[in-house]
């Protein structure tokens, strides 16, 4: 049964397959401002090396440290992976607070599901599982956004209790209670 795990080097082979699927669907070009797009541009040419992948995992884990210095307006972020054994299916990022950009477009939570795992309920289960760690950060209601054209993500957010607030800059904005 899939579960949320902290980023872990043991899923290296599966992670590479996930990123290859994202690349095949056109993610990672300069216009892709998503988490996946950023990571593909910064890391993908080096991920095959286990030592570099271990650095990447360490960087993701360090993102959750609220005392770690940050640049570019970034906020502390807990990164989790949705995995079944050593098979990575998706990833989710829980931002500990909102800055101006996140308040308008990005929200508290962002997630990606590998293309081959979509339409099987994984994204909904992953988001539901991420609500408890979000609540533990003191976030009672999480802002979650998705593109206006992303019907699947809209349905995931609504299935997890998302209440539509408005649309800004091509993004649907929902508030999701984090307590059961």
UniProtKB/TrEMBL annotation:
InterPro entries: Acyl_CoA_acyltransferase, GNAT_dom. Residues 24-180 form the N-acetyltransferase domain. This is GNAT family N-acetyltransferase.
């Amino acid at each position: 049964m899939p579960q949320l795990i902290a980023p872990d080097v043991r899923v290296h082979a599966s992670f590479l397959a996930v990123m290859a699927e994202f690349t095949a669907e056109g993610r990672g070009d300069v216009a892709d401002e998503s988490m996946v797009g950023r990571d593909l541009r910064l890391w993908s040419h080096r991920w095959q090396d286990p030592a570099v992948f271990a650095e990447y995992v360490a960087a993701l884990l360090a993102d959750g440290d609220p005392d770690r210095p940050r640049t570019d307006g970034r906020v502390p972020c807990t990164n989790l992976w949705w995995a079944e054994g050593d098979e990575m299916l998706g990833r989710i990022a829980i931002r500990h607070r909102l800055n101006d950009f996140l308040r308008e477009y990005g929200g508290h939570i962002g997630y990606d599901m590998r293309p081959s795992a979509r339409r099987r309920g994984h994204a909904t289960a992953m988001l539901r599982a991420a609500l408890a760690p979000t609540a533990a950060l003191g976030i009672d209601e999480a802002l979650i956004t998705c593109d206006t054209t992303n019907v699947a993500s809209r349905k995931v957010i609504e299935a997890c209790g998302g209440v539509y607030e408005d649309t800004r800059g091509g993004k649907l904005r929902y508030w999701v209670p984090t307590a059961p």
